[in-house]
Structure formats: structure tokens, C-alpha cells
């Protein structure tokens, strides 16, 4: 669901840059006020994991389309909304600058669509209401599926609005929406299932991460497991990803009455995938470390 610069007008792109930039500033301020050093290393590791997971497109049977997880809900559950937004923004920046996924003009839109809705809407108003702090498999699963579907649905609707407001593609609103919303609702359900599986694993290994509390021990097993998973997924993601166009490309093609060719699997992507994982690990991890240092300095001044 990464928007390309070709879909966004300069005015719309600049407007959403301001919105997303403001959200980054607000989130950074809130993180610097927290006293939770355990989540600092998790920002880098989980950001790298989400980057790698986004490389693996899965086919949607009967449609000729594909999708990938956004990762925003998973990050929000494990890091809280502010760290989740900053972490996913770091992922999108690396994808934009080093992998030409999206574009600089559309970056503000992509941050809002992929990070804001799951972190600030779906997580607090859907997931937390359904799942809360419960580790019940049923409540956890219901919360993950409902919240992930809601986040992707809202994000895809935002893409439609941004595209129509830009007026570049001239796609009819209702026609575009009739393809875009259902396909991303399905992708959201799949993301919910994946998120449920990951959180169920954490609930059995280090359940303290899933509870809203501070002062927990460093989750060393989780850090190691997600780092290894990110490197593996980054290395093989390009080999196993679906070659069907993603949900946005598919929707644009169907709304415009044309076909979109699939993308070929690139053997070189394994090297670039691992490089991207390391880049996100560094960018998101460094950001968390810097914000954590600001918080520590503020506490020292108060003392």
C-alpha cells in the first residue's frame, strides 16, 4: 500500500508531510518523557523485523493480487503507539531513500496511511478494547484480526482520498474504492492472523512484554529471536514473495480497466534485503537510543 510519487500532487504531498512531520515531533516528545529503557533496543529489532516481513508478498486467491503486512499493529502492541509510529516511520524512510519504494513526495502520505491508523486508531480503539492486557488466545486473536483489518481499511481509504485530491490519476472515487477497500480488508485479516501468531509466541516466551508496565527485564530471547527472523526473512523474502501486483497496483489497474504485469523475483534482493534489515536496525535503534538519552538527561536535571 506504499503510494508512489506519481499518484500524489505537490500540494497534497506537502500537506501530508506537515501532518506526518508533526506526528513524528509529537511522538518523539512523548517518548522522551517516558522512562522505559527496555523498549529502546526493541525499536531497532522490531523495525528490522517489520521491514523484512514487508518484503514477503502473499498471493490473494482468486484475485490475481497480493499483499504484505504493514506491521503497525504489531509494533503498537509491543512498543506503544508513539514508539510504533517512530519505528515504522524509520522503516518507510529507509525503504524510500535506499530501495525506491514509494517516493519522497509521497512519504508523508505513506507514514500517515501505514503508521498513524494502526498505531493511534486501531490499537487504542479496537485492539485495547477487545484484547486489553489479556493473554487469552481468543481475545488476543479477535483483537488482532479486528484491529489489523480496521487499520488497513482506514489506511486504504486514506490512499483513495489522497489520490483523488491529487487529481493526477483521474480515477473515479467510487470505482477505485470498490476495488481498493475490499482487497485491503482481506489483507488486513491476513495481517491480523500473522500478528496473532507472533503475539501468541511472545505470550508463551516473554509475556511481560505484552502487559502495560515498566521495569520489566530486558527481553533477550525476544531480541535474539526477532533479529534472527529479520535476517532470514530479509534474505529469502525476494525468493518466496508473490509476483502478483500488490493491492494498490491491482486496484488502480482494475479501476482503470487495464492489467498490471507482475514483478519478477530478483535473486539479488536477498543481499539488499539483509542490507535493508541492518539499515533499519541502525536507524530505528539509534532513534530510540537518542530519545532515551534525552529522557534520562531530563530525569537527571529534575533530580
The N- and C-terminal alpha carbons lie at a distance of 46 Å
Strand content: under 5%
Percent range for helical residues? over 70%
Q: N-to-C SSE series?
A: HHEEHHHHHHHH
Report the CATH architecture.
Orthogonal Bundle
Which segments are poorly predicted (pLDDT under 50) over 5 or more consecutive residues? none
Number of strands: 2
Helix/strand/pairing category: mainly alpha
* Overall CATH class: Mainly Alpha
Mean pLDDT: 88
**Large-scale geometry:** globular
CATH topology: Arp2/3 complex 21 kDa subunit ARPC3
Largest sheet data: 2 strands, antiparallel
Q: In order across it, which strands form the biggest sheet?
A: 1-2
Please give the count of helices.
10
- What count of domains describes the coordinates? 1
Using the CA coordinates, give the radius of gyration. Answer: 19 Å
Can you offer a commentary on this structure?
The protein has 303 residues and is mainly α. It has one domain: Arp2/3 complex 21 kDa subunit ARPC3. The chain is built from ten helices and two strands; from the N terminus they run ααββαααααααα. It has a two-stranded antiparallel ribbon. Strand 1 (58-60) and strand 2 (65-67) form a beta hairpin. It is globular and about 55 Å long.
Amino acid at each position: 500500500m506504499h503510494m508512489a510519487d506519481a499518484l500524489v500532487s505537490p500540494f497534497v504531498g506537502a500537506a501530508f508531510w506537515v501532518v506526518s512531520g508533526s506526528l513524528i515531533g509529537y511522538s518523539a516528545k512523548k517518548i522522551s518523557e517516558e522512562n522505559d529503557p527496555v523498549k529502546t533496543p526493541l525499536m531497532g529489532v522490531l523495525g528490522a523485523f517489520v521491514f523484512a516481513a514487508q518484503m514477503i508478498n502473499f498471493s490473494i486467491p482468486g484475485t490475481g493480487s497480493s499483499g504484505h503486512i504493514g506491521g503497525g499493529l504489531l509494533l503498537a502492541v509491543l512498543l506503544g503507539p508513539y514508539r510504533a509510529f517512530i519505528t515504522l516511520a524509520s522503516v518507510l524512510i529507509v525503504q524510500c531513500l535506499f530501495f525506491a519504494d514509494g517516493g519522497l513526495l509521497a512519504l508523508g502520505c505513506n507514514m500517515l496511511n501505514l503508521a498513524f491508523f494502526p498505531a493511534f486508531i486501531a490499537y487504542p480503539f479496537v485492539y485495547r478494547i477487545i484484547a486489553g492486557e489479556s493473554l487469552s488466545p481468543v481475545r488476543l486473536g479477535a483483537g488482532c484480526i479486528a484491529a489489523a483489518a480496521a487499520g488497513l481499511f482506514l489506511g486504504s481509504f486514506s490512499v483513495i482520498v489522497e489520490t483523488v485530491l491529487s487529481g493526477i490519476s483521474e480515477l473515479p472515487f467510487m470505482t477505485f474504492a470498490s476495488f481498493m477497500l475490499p482487497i485491503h480488508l482481506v489483507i488486513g485479516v491476513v495481517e491480523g492472523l500473522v500478528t496473532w501468531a507472533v503475539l501468541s509466541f511472545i505470550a508463551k516466551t516473554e509475556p511481560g512484554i505484552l502487559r502495560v508496565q515498566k521495569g520489566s527485564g530486558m527481553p533477550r530471547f525476544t531480541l535474539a529471536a526477532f533479529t534472527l527472523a529479520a535476517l532470514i526473512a530479509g534474505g529469502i523474502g525476494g525468493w518466496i514473495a508473490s509476483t502478483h501486483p500488490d493491492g494498490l497496483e491491482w486496484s488502480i489497474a482494475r479501476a482503470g480497466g487495464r492489467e498490471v504485469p507482475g514483478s519478477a523475483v530478483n535473486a539479488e534482493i536477498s543481499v539488499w534485503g539483509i542490507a535493508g534489515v541492518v539499515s533499519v536496525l541502525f536507524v530505528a535503534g539509534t532513534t530510540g537510543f537518542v530519545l532515551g538519552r534525552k529522557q534520562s538527561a531530563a530525569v537527571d536535571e529534575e533530580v
